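Hey L., structure's done. Input below.
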Amino acid sequence: MFKKGSKLYSIFNNKCPRCNEGDFMKNNTKFGLIKSVKMHESCTICNLKYMIEPSFFYGAMYVTYGLTIALSVAAFIIAYGIFGLSFVYSTVAIAITVIGFIPITIRLSRIIWINMFVSYDVPQD
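Output:
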């Protein structure tokens, strides 16, 4: 879907941002809170250390916030605008959506965050 070497390829395929080959997360499962958010310490292919500095991924909380807001708005539009649920039920739908997508938003926010700081390194032939 996305061309190798792009940041979107790295993000959506769970790949190292530098080489686009090694896995970023230990498990490719997107559900299951504990298993889905475990990361490799470094890339198995290019040896990029993922924890660039201590507490590096604390900044990913800002990305998580943005993703959660986008999910909340989408859930509200679907529940209130399309299905015509009351405001209270729409709020419940938002809560269920946000809680259900916690593992995915954590994974995405971490890989988006590291992609902001690490670029693809074209292999030298």
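The chain has one domain: 8-117. DSSP finds five helices and no strands in the chain.

-- N.
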